[in-house]
Task: structure prediction
Amino acid sequence: MKSKNTSASALETASLRSCFAIAKVKAKKKCRAFHGGPENNTDVSRDISKAGLGIILCIGAIIGTGGFFLLVGGLIKSGGIASFLSGWIAAFTGI
Result:
């Protein structure tokens, strides 16, 4: 007869696998939409991904708009494109 001799790490690994399996099942559960019926069920993880992507895109748009206005302000302050570019090159190279 073989004895079941399992080490502590094997037991921990098995319990971790079952925890991850439970977490996957919970993440894949369907949530019922506000308007009722089973045809309006949506995947929760997909909705969370859409929200995260929307937030990232909005923040990128805000940063891009700010950069554009700073560029326009620099062009106006320097007196034109030529002086702006020469000032930028002087600042970049240190000459």
DSSP finds three helices and two strands in the chain. Residues 32 and 41 are 5 Å apart (CA to CA). The longest helix spans residues 44-78. The mean pLDDT is 75.
